[in-house]
């Protein structure tokens, strides 16, 4: 079932004296001069929230404030760092661990699994198996706190620091007392108990202020109770809304809503085939699951649905095609990693619309520079909610809120904060490919074979097992280093399902008495208890 509607453009005002938008000015003034402990900013996709982050970092030279930027995905961290280098100038900014820090430069401490592995390789620290020791060395050896700059990382690092899981956690936290902590796209963490704990502990201990940014904010009841204890300011976009003649940041879209059983790969391919002649390039396809997307990519290529001149590129938590350049023959395959903070100029977009926050975010990936086309893939029936042929952008986003689900059980792209999370190695029997992912693999895969005592194996046995599971030789060394820092719980072999299912209460967590992880009918044995 197809429905076609027009989505009208959206505009924003700007103060031509300082080139800031009203909500940006209000946020900056509140951070530097307000007495609020918590600031929540709700502004549409593309309105300029991330610009404020870059502005704050450059102002830190004058204000001597430590900023901590927490991002939900590794790829978003890397994207923001790249943008900073482009806008501030590569000579004026130093990024750890790739650059040596210098006085009178903007020094950014970028902390992720990738940067940690780079640090290990740069300094021949392969024998260190304690992640706590590595983080402690990072903070103290590089003497970040004597330099001007900020920290860019994920919420996981601070979650573990606040729980005391790292060596000298208190000493590390003392270094960054009274920091301004900014969580971009905080809607990603909706419903995660660990996130509520994180916010409460940050407010109680090291945060001078906490800033929560999102186009689609969601606050659980428990998180709202925590925030009610502190003076809070909510900054809305309403006063920044412009009209024709102001800056257009969301251009007009021609939208086609496609309702079908999108969990079925064959149905999905049929719909894409029907739409293929209506797609303008460069284009993107965004799905919830990287695994389903990889399978769709293989079928698209095998069936030659698109012209041979079309170049497939991936932008996901697992992979970003090298030398990423978009032109009129580009088709980008992406997941939730592409829906936030990534500025690409697509002429059309096909996306899976399951949960309303991600759908609103994805809608914002097209029509950023010019008019565009969008194709929503959904299992919901939009018919009762579409009473006319054109909608203001806000109106259409409200329809998405009404029709689609809350994201309590969203299948995410991994590489994002999950509170308690358990990592696995997976061999996909159909793709003949190897992946690392969290426990949500059990939602998406029929497991046909598995290693349940991985953590108890010796290194040479692990190496042999990885070879048996067809892991490329060049990848094995880095995986075994990663396993020392962030231990895997098991190795799996399986086939993707057409119908996903949620784990809900089908996990029994390890305890101090029994270090066993139960997922559905599977049991995995760990070496030591980790809370």
Q: How would you sum up this structure, described in words?
A:
The chain has 531 residues and is α/β, with parallel strands linked by helices. It has an 8-stranded mixed sheet with strand order 14-15-13-16-17-12-1-18, with helices on both faces. The protein has an 8-stranded parallel sheet with strand order 5-6-7-4-8-9-3-10, with helices on both faces. Strand 8, helix 8 (193-204) and strand 9 (207-214) form a beta-alpha-beta unit. The protein is globular and about 65 Å long. The protein starts with a strand and ends in a 6-residue tail after the last strand. Residues 411-416 have low confidence and may be disordered.
Feature tags:
531 residues, alpha/beta, Rossmann fold, eight-stranded mixed beta sheet, eight-stranded parallel beta sheet, 25 strands, 32% helix, globular
Number of structural units classed as domains: 3
Side-by-side strand order of the widest sheet: 14-15-13-16-17-12-1-18
Do you know the CATH architecture of the largest domain? 3-Layer(aba) Sandwich
For the biggest sheet, the summary is: 8 strands, mixed
Full CATH superfamily name of the largest domain: P-loop containing nucleotide triphosphate hydrolases
Q: What is the radius of gyration computed over CA atoms, rounded to a whole number of angstroms?
A: 23 Å
If helices are DSSP runs of H or I spanning 4 or more residues, what is the number of helices? 16
* pLDDT < 50 stretches: 411-416
| Helix content, binned percent | 25-40%
Q: Which structural class is indicated by helix and strand composition?
A: alpha/beta
- Could you name the CATH class of the largest domain? Alpha Beta
**Coarse morphology:** globular
Number of strands: 25
The span between the termini is 48 Å
CATH topology of the largest domain: Rossmann fold
Beta-strand content: 15-25%
Calculate the mean pLDDT score and round it: 86
Give the quaternary arrangement of the chains.
Answer: single chain
